[in-house]
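Box S2. Input/output pair 1.
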Amino acid sequence: MKNTYYIGIDGGGTKTNFILFDSDKNSIASVLMPTIHPAQTSFKEAVSILTEAREKLLINIKDCDYDLKVGAGLGGYGINKDYRKKLEDEFSSVFEEFRLYSDAYAAMLGALGGDDGILIIAGTGSIGLAKIGENTYRCGGFGYRYGDEGSAYSIGKSIISAALKESDGRNKKSKIYDLVLEYFKMNSVNDIATSDFTREHIAGLAAEASKYIYSCESIKIIFERAAGEITLHIKALSEKFENKIKLSYIGGVFKSEFIMKMIKEMNPDIDIVSPIFPPEKGSILQV
């Protein structure tokens, strides 16, 4: 009887991680490759990346004959039909049996171990997902321009806004003013108005600010609001459930003990658990 091996893939906007699993879905080997996001790579480039990753992983299999199944959670595999078609064509050029998901859905499968429940992702951006049987529900995730509430980016942006208000007298100066100057290495907060920081750079300000939650009331309020926004995602998705809810989480915002404490206090009836599996394993749970 042939053994079955699995390749689980987590594809983001900057890199793609591939993990080879044995028939019991234990990891054997991994390889990190460039992104295959359809907005950033050509068809030829993506096929080349997939082929190279496949070859690097399969040399770890000693069996002469085996079955191979592939699951992938991919950035770009969402509502854009052209992106979905491009990714499906790329995978069909390299793999015989595969199943593709959005990166958020694969992360949810992994974090919840395939069970029903809610996953909140709050990193640079934010989104909430829920799984009930074969049905999936989404909340938020509308991007940094109009959404991503509760994300590290939204926290960083709020801190910058507070610093600007402190600079012109609308608010009294606090630790926020000096923190923003130090973080962005500027002589004047006013220089921010003409700066073009990346989303990731602004999001990084949240981690720095979290060090002063208990010593600066203004920062504490911003983090309380972020916890409240995350809770709005949770409560909206909770309406779909009839039984006790399991919730997991992914993203840098949850590294804040204060955020975790607030979310637990705001959602006392929900069972909050650490992620069970990584997204790569989540992508093969339904293959």
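Box S3. Input/output pair 2.
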Amino acid sequence: MSESQRRLTIGLIGAFTPELFKGDYFTQVLIGVTNALVGTPHDFRLILVKDEEYRNPDFKILDRHQVDALILITWRIHDRYIAEALDEKKIPVIVINDPTPSLRSSIVYCDNKEGVHLAMRHLLSRGYRKIGMLHAPDDASLDARQRYDLLRELLGQYQLTFDPEHYRKCDYFFEEDGYLKMLDMIHQSEKLPRAIICVNDDIAIGAIRALKENWIRVPDQVAVIGYDGIRKGKYTEPSLTTIGQPLELMGREMVRILMEQIEKKSLEPVTRVVSPELIIRKSC
């Protein structure tokens, strides 16, 4: 019997917090993972790590949960569980969207550079040159932090001005973060930027609400563009222009790579880069 015919268990590790599934990002990844396993004999196990477990250096999550391969979706705990999976359990492991230079595992990630370029070219095509951003916190994943750095680079390339008044670092990734930081910009800035790039769609949706509550028309006065392409963005008013990541495809691809590694009995890391797309709606 081949490995692919044997009943396997794919584990997925996330942090044990109510915020994990608050946004649609992880939900869409999970849909892809589960769809890849439908119709197969294989099982899926969601493993949520509590803070006290992570703080205990002697706690071994994979001693408690017996799995044949591992998906990691929580960037803050990658290194520890990658080491446990590869070095101790000798099972393949894969992460999503956190291409750190020292990464030892397989990864599926969406090309940030291409995504930020798509956003910037779209803004410039609409004539917007005063551009601000609601960006990620310092402890965010590398791919989220990269978007701010890439935008700063592009401002220089296109000879656009960086105005600190038009940039806010969000505390997390949810609608309320975008709402509160946009309110702060509205009340503290002498003049708003013509367009706002948001590090994800949830933050963009919150920002749009703050603008509308203050009688600022989107996109006539301030245009807003998100990032991720989550489903609820199409139902906001106005509907959200965004840089879409193929999240469900990425979930399916992670499972495919793991199954191939199990079949080949290989721990050699695999990198798969997917392309984002510009989804033009009404907000920008």
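Caption for Box S3: The CA atoms of residues 111 and 275 lie 6 Å apart. The longest strand covers residues 9-15.
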